[in-house]
Amino acid sequence: MWMWTLDDRLINVTQVESIELLPVLPEEADPEAFEAGEVEADYYELIAVMASGDEAPLYEAEDADQAELAFQLLAGTLALASGGDTKLDEPFSVHQLLEEHRKLSN
C-alpha cells in the first residue's frame, strides 16, 4: 500500500515505523509554556517516521481537532490494512481520507 506525502513523495506504508501528531510552536515559544496552556501552536503536523529514520510530512492543520481527526483516520486505515481487512489499490493521501470521511458524515 502506498501513500502520498505533502511534499509529493510516494511512500510504502509497510516502511512506516510510526505516525506522530506534533504541534508546531512559534519560534520564540517555550515548550513548557505550551504544555501549561499558555501558548498555542501555530499549526499541527502529522508525520510518518520511516524505518530508515526519515520523516515524511503527511498533513498540516491549524485546528487541533482537525489534525486529531486526520491522525485517527490514518491510524484506522493503516490498522485495517495491516490486518489484511482492506486493500487500497491506488495510492492515497490523508486529504483523501478526510474527504471520504466528510462525504460519509453528510
Describe the structure.
By secondary structure, the chain is α+β, with helices and mostly antiparallel strands. The chain has one domain. The chain is 34% helix and 28% strand. A 3-stranded antiparallel beta sheet has the order 3-4-5, covered by helices on one side. Strands 1-2 form a two-stranded antiparallel ribbon. Strand 1 and strand 2 form a beta hairpin. Helix 2 crosses helix 3. It is globular and about 45 Å long.
Helix/sheet category = alpha+beta
**Can you tell me the overall shape?**
globular
Strand content: 25-35%
- State the low-pLDDT regions, or none: none
Task: Give a quick precis of the structure.
34% of the residues lie in helices and 28% in strands. The protein is α+β, with helices and mostly antiparallel strands.
Keywords:
106 residues, globular, single chain, alpha+beta, two-stranded antiparallel ribbon, 5 strands, three-stranded antiparallel β-sheet
Topology:
Layout: E1 2-4, E2 10-12, E3 16-24, H1 31-35, E4 43-50, E5 55-61, H2 64-82, H3 94-105
